[in-house]
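User: Is it possible to get a 3D structure for a protein together with its bound compound? The compound here is coenzyme A. I've pasted both below.
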Amino acid sequence: MIPNQLRNETLQLRPFVQEDEVDVLAYWQSDPGWERFNASVPTNFTSSDASAFVTEMRARNRDVQPNWAIEYQGDVVGIVSLTLEQDSRTAIIGYGVHAGVRGRGMAAAATALVISEAFTSYPQLAKISAHTNGENLASMKVLEKLGFSREGLLRRAHFVKGRWVDDAIYGLLREEWDQ
Ligand SMILES: CC(C)(COP(=O)(O)OP(=O)(O)OC[C@H]1O[C@@H](n2cnc3c(N)ncnc32)[C@H](O)[C@@H]1OP(=O)(O)O)[C@@H](O)C(=O)NCCC(=O)NCCS
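Assistant: Yes, that's possible. Here is the predicted structure of the complex:
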């Protein structure tokens, strides 16, 4: 199984604890624009939504859906999550960080830690994919910096809060990460 705790010089990735709901609320409220991309993000995020989110992250089976709170200088500023499929031969990665710390490479660094550990922990893992909104330029930039290739665009993939949004699909093969 992939480790619960990962770290680099500035970031610690660790499992959520229920007390993190305060930081999670601050993280979600930091970006009122994000909900337009994502059907699962409430329009008005409340403390009970944050509590439910943390509860759900903690309840996930880490064998198939490991997830990490990104801690920076004592605060939880984001999340990285993996969903393992096909007996851990493929996986889907997701990530997000507080709007107040964006543009400093944190999402790329936290995601890179998880990718490295995933390929080490699961020798059969051949590919990691990511699905991101086709208008989410920052997210696509993160994936391109990490060496992902754009594999396609699913047009009108989701109907989110009154409008259609496209899904951009990215993939990273094991041998591309090793290079
Ligand atoms: C996407 C997200 C995780 C990026 O976080 P981050 O910590 O700012 O990411 P990084 O600093 O590692 O890289 C962001 C890159 O995008 C670039 N960028 C940011 N906004 C951009 C924009 N509007 N257009 C083009 N590039 C943009 C930055 O300049 C940076 O590139 P650089 O390192 O070459 O300068 C963050 O915006 C976020 O949490 N968004 C909400 C959640 C989300 O969309 N998650 C992804 C779902 S798959």
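The chain has one domain: 8-178. The CA atoms of residues 50 and 162 lie 24 Å apart.
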